[in-house]
Write a structure and sequence with these properties.
Number of strands: 7
Distance between the termini: 44 Å
Helix content: 25-40%
Structural class: alpha/beta
Length: about 210
């Protein structure tokens, strides 16, 4: 029953937003990876997941904001049962470590999808990245970080809007990057952001 719901969810998302995939700098792979994407709509998570091939999607866990996805039973069901998401408190207590659950999944050979801006943008600009991406890179220097640029998705349901407008969204997957030895936090985060923004323009090659 849950498997059927997951397939149905992917079909609905593809119907609403297209969720096309454009693998520019890498190919789909079932090895553990950390995908990081720009964040402008509530549909970002499901759009990236729908753009992944099934064999990759079944091993990938989105990292989602608990305050939004745990707010209602329906959202919780979609996030946890439909998307296999890990719900993270964006304001953790002093004694909690949101990274612990993520590290456990990586140890099991799973992949993660994160949105390093931390919150949805109200414009087409991609904001500065939070430090969580750097912490994951420091602890997992052997894992590939894959930038994913979501094109056109903000228009379907921008922040503050409750209207759905069917559009065609493309998820562009870029070249893998890894943290360099002793690379400073600011340098790595800016390099990762630059790799993401490099995917903003459609490929015009014939």
């Amino acid at each position: 029953m849950i498997a059927l719901f997951r397939r149905l969810l992917v079909m609905i998302v593809r119907l609403l937003v297209g969720a096309r995939s454009d693998w520019r700098g890498c190919a789909p792979d079932t090895r553990r990876r950390i995908y990081f994407a720009n964040h402008s709509s509530h549909f970002d998570t499901v759009a990236v997941m729908a753009a992944l091939p099934w064999e990759v999607r079944r091993l990938t866990h989105p990292v989602a904001a608990k305050d939004y996805w745990d707010a209602t039973p329906l959202r919780r069901f979609i996030a946890i049962r439909g998307l296999r998401a890990v719900l993270i408190d964006r304001k953790p207590t002093r004694h909690s470590d949101p990274m612990e659950r993520l590290e456990h999944l990586l140890t099991e050979g799973r992949s993660l999808l994160i949105f390093p801006e931390g919150t949805r943008s109200t414009t087409d600009d991609t904001g500065p990245f939070k430090g969580g991406l750097f912490r994951l890179a420091q602890k997992n220097p052997d894992i590939e970080f894959i930038p994913v640029y979501l094109d056109n998705l903000r228009r379907i349901m921008p922040k503050g809007s409750f209207l759905l407008v069917p559009i065609t969204c493309t998820a562009r997957f870029g070249e893998p990057l890894r943290i360099a030895a002793d690379e400073p936090r600011a340098d790595f985060l800016e390099r990762a952001r630059a790799a993401l923004l490099a995917l903003a323009e459609p490929d015009t090659k014939p």
